[in-house]
Amino acid sequence: MKLLEKAIGDLEDALECEDEALVIEGFMDRYHVSEQEAEQIFLETKKWLWLAAKASEEEEKLSLAIDKPLLVLDEMWHNFILYTRQYHRYCLSKFKKFIHHEPASRQEKLRAQQEMENNPTAAIEKWERSHYQQLSYIYDHLGAETVIKWYEELPAKYTPEYLASIKK
User: Fold this and answer.
1) pTM as predicted
2) Has residue 9 been placed in a domain?
């Protein structure tokens, strides 16, 4: 495990970003949020990126998914990616690789919809296993506080409707 931590860096290191002010200002230019809110969302996004890098390096190669509760982290990630040079530099310095944002394709969404229509029980069980695995991984590496923040606190405030209402 120490070798893995060396390869992708530790969490404390990943939370440092030399271009943080630029990314936060960019988010504030796109959304009506305070600087403190933007800083907190960016902090959680950097934790997500660290976790995604870690998951992709482990033997099981767990593929984490940005699901609906994590929508505000996804918006900040999109914002960060707009600063391509800074995002690229951050990924390489913190994780020694680029963390790609790979949304589900239309084909994947249609396949999931088809699975739900054909066998709802099996589709729900598959989703539950995947969701449990992701929550367990978050809990194991970032603790209960992060699970609560990401799956209760943030989605309670940053609903899709609220995000749409504060978008500039």
Assistant:
1) 0.90
2) yes
- Say how many domains are in the chain: 1
Query: Do the domain assignments include residue 152?
Result: yes
Print the domain residue range for 61: 2-105+145-166
Question: Which residues does residue 158 pair with via DSSP β-bridges, in sequence order?
Answer: none
Residue 108 structure tokens:
């994947």
pLDDT in tens, the chain (168 residues): 444 444 456 899 999 999 999 999 999 999 999 999 999 999 999 999 999 999 988 766 788 999 999 999 999 999 999 999 999 999 999 999 999 998 889 999 899 999 999 999 998 999 899 999 999 999 999 999 999 999 999 999 999 999 999 999
